[in-house]
Amino acid sequence: MSVIKRGNQWCLRRRVPVEFQQVESRNEIWISLKTDSRRLADQKASAVWAEQVAAWTARLSGNDPDAVKHYEAVQDLAAA
């Protein structure tokens, strides 16, 4: 898992897996973990990534209403 510092905040940077490229136009995503602590960023990164993968999976299966909930969950996890 690649956790990178951008300014004063830590971000999760990952390549978009091939199986999700039909529902995600970017090759690489950056998600702010909304913390200046490396330790907290490392703790949040796995949960945020798992929620992002769940959102893509929902979009692939056609469950778009859940995709909005997953996106909000990613944001909530990053802000916690």
From TrEMBL:
It comes from the Bacteria. InterPro entries: DUF6538. Residues 4-58 form the DUF6538 domain. Pfam families: DUF6538 (PF20172). This is DUF6538 domain-containing protein. It comes from Pseudooctadecabacter jejudonensis.
